[in-house]
């Protein structure tokens, strides 16, 4: 419910008397919103905060450069147009790859159920906040915020669908024996006994997707009618895909290939330049919608939940629901998973679609 506070950013950006102050405001906003990154990277890569700080600052420089260069000393709708261009550049490819903490995400809180109309209304309010009409726009934001808060309810999943959160830490998907798969199957069985027909497991839950793993799961589900959607990695000599797989009795398939893996830690396109194939592949605009059990699904894996373009690309295809998964063990003690969950909930509420989430911590 605090997401609309992000709309203070365009007002403060426009109120800056100089380009230097506008740049400082942009840096402060981005660094505060992504403050969990240095600690998370330090947890992922080991002791030392240098790499986390470098990634944090590097991503910030893109955001700051766009908003700093497009700032104008002249007030009015010309300045609003410049902010609109900056917001668009940070929402779409290629700069949208690091378009975290976009103020448009607040649309789901301000105008739940309004869909594209609500997104447009939020954009117009955001631009009005950069003009002399900002007091009127601020009152409109506060009014919509209070009205929404009075009847707010988090999005729920469709009947028979259930997301399973796990607390397996860094071990998830990395076990070299079948014990972890048995633990996950126990989670699935409990969810099935509670009435779930489709069970969603977190990103990377199944580890490397091989014929052996596929056969183990198909055999385990052979006597049930439950369907499992889970994260895995498909590896070949050119790299790997971060995927969601769908498994049922006697059948299994790759359901979704991640469009935007985490830059640097997963997506490292420069490795192909030197003949190495250790990078996750980014499928960008591929498979925005997948179909499972007769439902059109907008899948969002981990990093995709922090961006604007993946979810909007999926929503152009009118999905029936959103499935959001993540493996956030490395974010312990940070706000990252909380932001991912809040973003997924906001988009689901904006477009009035059910939401199923599954995270590992």
From TrEMBL:
Pfam families: CN_hydrolase. It comes from the Bacteria. Coiled coil: none annotated. GO terms for molecular function: hydrolase activity. SUPFAM superfamilies: Carbon-nitrogen hydrolase. The chain crosses the membrane at residues 48-71, 83-103, 109-129, 136-153. Residues 161-361 form the CN hydrolase domain. GO terms for cellular component: membrane. Keywords: Hydrolase, Membrane, Transmembrane, Transmembrane helix. The keyword Membrane applies. PROSITE patterns: CN_HYDROLASE. NCBIfam families: PRK13825.1-2. This is Carbon-nitrogen hydrolase. It comes from Rhodopseudomonas pseudopalustris.
């Amino acid at each position: 419910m605090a997401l609309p506070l992000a709309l203070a950013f365009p007002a403060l950006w426009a109120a800056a008397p100089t380009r230097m102050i506008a740049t400082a405001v942009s840096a402060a906003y981005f660094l505060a919103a992504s403050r969990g990154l240095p600690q998370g990277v330090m947890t992922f890569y080991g002791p030392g905060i240098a790499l986390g700080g470098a990634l944090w600052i590097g991503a910030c420089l893109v955001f700051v450069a766009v908003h700093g260069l497009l700032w104008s000393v002249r007030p009015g709708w010309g300045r609003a147009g410049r902010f609109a261009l900056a917001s668009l550049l940070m929402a779409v490819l290629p700069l949208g790859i690091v378009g975290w903490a976009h103020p448009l995400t607040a649309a789901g809180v301000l105008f739940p159920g309004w869909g594209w109309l609500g997104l447009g209304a939020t954009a117009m309010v955001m631009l009005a906040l950069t003009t002399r009409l900002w007091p009127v726009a601020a009152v409109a934001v506060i009014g919509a915020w209070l009205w929404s808060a009075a009847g707010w309810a988090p999005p729920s999943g469709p009947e028979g669908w259930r997301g399973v959160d796990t607390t397996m830490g860094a071990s998830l998907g990395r076990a070299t024996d079948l014990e972890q798969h048995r633990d996950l199957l126990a989670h699935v069985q409990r969810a099935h006994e509670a009435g779930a027909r489709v069970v969603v497991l977190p990103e990377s839950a199944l580890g490397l997707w091989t014929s052996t793993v596929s056969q183990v799961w198909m055999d385990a589900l052979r006597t049930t009618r439950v369907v499992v959607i889970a994260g895995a990695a498909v590896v070949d000599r050119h790299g790997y895909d971060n995927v969601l797989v769908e498994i049922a009795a006697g059948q299994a398939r790759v359901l979704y290939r991640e469009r935007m893996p985490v830059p640097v830690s997963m997506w490292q396109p420069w490795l192909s330049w030197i003949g190495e194939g250790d990078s996750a592949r980014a499928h960008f605009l591929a498979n925005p919608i997948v179909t499972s059990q007769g439902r059109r699904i907008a899948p969002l894996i981990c990093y995709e939940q922090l961006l604007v373009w993946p979810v909007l690309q999926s929503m152009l295809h009118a999905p029936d629901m959103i499935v959001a998964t993540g493996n956030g063990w490395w974010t312990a003690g940070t706000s990252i998973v909380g932001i991912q969950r809040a973003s997924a909930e906001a988009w689901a509420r904006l477009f009035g679609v059910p939401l199923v989430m599954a995270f590992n911590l």
